[in-house]
Amino acid sequence: MKTLLAKLRALVRRRNLEAEMMEEMRQHLERRTQEKIADGLSFDEARYAAQREFGGVAQLQEQCRDERSFISVEQFVRDVRYAARSLRKNPGFTITAVATVALCLGTNLTLFALIDSILLRPLPFPHAERLVTIFNTYPKAGVERDGASLTNYYERRGQIAAFSDLALFRAESATVGESGVTDRVDVARVSPDFFSTLGVALQLGRPFREEEATQQTQRVAILTDRCWRERFNADPQVIGRTLRVNEVAREIVGVLPADFRFLSSTAQLYLPLASDPQSRSPAARHSGNSIEMIARLRPGVTLADAQAEVDAHDASVAETYPQPKLISDAGFRSVVVPLQGDHVRAIRPMLLLLQAGALLLLLLSSINLVGLLLVRASGRAHEVAVRRALGAASRHIVTASVVETVLLAVVGAAGGVILAAFGVDVIRVLGGDRLPLGATIAFGARSAMVGCLSGTVLGLALGVPVAWFHVRPGLGGVLHSTARGGHENRATRRLRNGLVVAQIALAFGLLAGAGLLGLSLHRVMAVSPGFRPDHVLSGALTLPARTYDSRSRLLTFADRLADKILRRPGVTAVGIGTRLPFAGNNVKSAITVKGYVAPPGDSVRGVYTYGVTGDYFGAMGIPLLRGRVLTADDSRGNVRVCVVDEDFARRHWAKGDPLGQRLFDGSTERPDAEGFTIVGVVGAVKQAGLAETPTGAVYFPLRYRSDFNIFVVVRATTLPTTFGATLASIVRQLDPELPLSDLRTMDERITNSLVTRRSPALLASLFAVGALLLTALGTYGVVGYAVAQRRREIGVRLALGAEPRQIRDHFLAFSLRLLAAGVGLGLVAAWCIGRALQTLLFNVPTIHLGTITGSAAVLALASLLACWLPARRAAKVDPIVALRCE
Amino acid sequence: MTKIDLLQGTLDMLILRVLARGEMHGWGIADRLSHLSRNALKLGEGSVYPSLYRMEGKGWIKAEWAPSDNNRKAKYYSLTKAGRKQLETEQQNWDQLSTIIAEIMQKA
Q: Is A671 on the interface with B (CB under 8 A)?
């Protein structure tokens, strides 16, 4: 090992060593010459004598080089040329091998580029590893994550020694632009210290000031570089100019640097997160409002330190909240986690598993290649044995084999790098840019380097068994046995059979894994969303607070909009709601049922709350189970009624009748006049995703739960593609300021929500198909080789009266034995893969009998087909020809 | 005086033995060998170098550039721990071998 290291080092420092060697020998000769001159010789005589005593300098130098490097350069060049020639002579093998390496490495590199972009590369901020996020969790209330509140921010700021900076961020959307040409764009509201927390300096202007957040009268904005270029043509004098946001002119005070992007945010504009004292008071401490809190740890402070300080701070202020018991019953805690890790937490296991799958495929294809290379090597065994008998050193034989495999793998790796560069685009098509940090996915220099390196390593690894095959003991045996046409030695045969068994096992594991993912996807898709998504179009509107300053204006607008849309031909129902399933907003709220006492150990549960008007239930296709639904009339009058879903009803009135019961919006019981009477029970609807566990939902008339962000839902008998434009123009007729955005059918929304399940399942199936093909190829190769090896024996048997059928069955039985061993081992692999996948699967057990049987059947079919051809060839051997050909 | 060939493989041992006395440069080793053998060995001075490079690669000796007596940088070789061990083994083998050969030559 040491010798190897020294030689590797020598390879790297080659030039250096060369110079040293020259210098050393030169010094030697010079010194000798001087001695001779001192003895009385002339300079020429002395030099000649010294050289004679020294010996041939060039030869000695060559010997030294040989001692210190793997191979001399010339030898290496000769080996490469020889390898290239022999690969060219065998194009079928070469193309197969290079293509296999290119495909498998390409797949791996594509996934690596993804992992590198999303998981490994730090966020583009200075000391990004010190950035953390802090969120509130109420696990016992079914609310895992509730962001942080304004109160949290104002109370914690400057109070927690572990943080050098603390800031807030909230993603929103706003209507931007002049009347008639408005767009709905993503914006972000941030606390003044947001940019300094990230360590980002503006390219123009200044960050927000404290008073711009605490007073709601300051109208300012900071542009992203993109917005600055698109809307202001990159005007260097932009500071002080104004931009209309939600119909209000805002003064531009700064421009962000070109490469600025906060996580996956698509915000084009940053506005101060302004608030009134009420929403910063202790009573508002647990109103998350989709705000994210970020902080920067002081140097040297650990996450645990920060967590301890936050816990202590939470405890110190807990009593100032009006209902401390409610909060502690809900299991409240503020959690401090690394910002990047938290942002990509959902995608991490999936990415790692896909990479593992790709690595398995690479392993499988390497095993396959080793099998092919060994078959090739046996074809050459005779030639190599002769070379060795004539005195070729083992070292040279090994080098020649390794040079060949490295050449193959490196050419393959180059192809893989090119494929991966395209593969990254394919990932985008598959929905990669919708992943967290997905927009940063790129095939970088690091991935290319990993590609080249792994190609070399793969080549070295592939060369080992071939080299072993050639230099293994028993040189005489090869010459002997090949001459007699007998069997190759048992060790190589076992190795080759073992390789096929390993391939079958791996392919089985991959097939079963892909089957589980597919089955899981199938089961998720079979889950009813709770509404009829066909023929439903939906879009989002943000109503500017200035125009829609009163609730009645908002209601009037909603009424007129629903009315106008309903008059279009083909439209059967129109509804308006403050939120929409599968539209990204999954915030839960607290609801208090009058007279309901939670069972011991249970607490208030977070539920989805909606404000609806028009025929929301009809448009969405949500079934009515009892009572009646809410209509536009409920928003016009002032009857305090509501509708709950079946999950909510079952949880609170397992036996009793929910109709007529009263509930309150919020976490406390209030005066009776503020309660709502339940008038109906509707079916449960999935909100965040099809795999979601039910949490319950309450629907209020829009009048009592309004929002400036509303969704329009339209059900029609047919949905022509132009219908979206029609809807947008209807909105513009009512209010030229209003852009209709996020126009999608409900089917589309559901499909999009499945992207993180569908793409992995699709990729895994591709891997499995690749594995299946490779395994079939491997089996074909090995059985075919066995047949070729035993032609003479088969000829003798046939000559002695064996039935061709017996010969064929013999080889079929041989491959069945391989298959059985492979599937046996594969069961273990499948179990491991099932275990690893468990957290990603929906309603699928680790070992699913159907998947296992199916995989086994597919694999058996493929490998039987693969050995049928050579087995038939064996049965057709002509004994005369077989015996004569030796 | 006819010079005699060195037995194959013994040069390494001789160099190790010479270096056991302390660090030395290439020509010093050659000097020492010819001096100790009273110039009776048929050995080109340069042949020490392939041997030195080989043993450096095996980790038996290590080389260092250091200023020499005439104030120029010269390459000095010295034994490593592994080299000392190797010398010991080779010495033992050699002793055994020479005894056996001597015995056979006398008694046969």
A: no
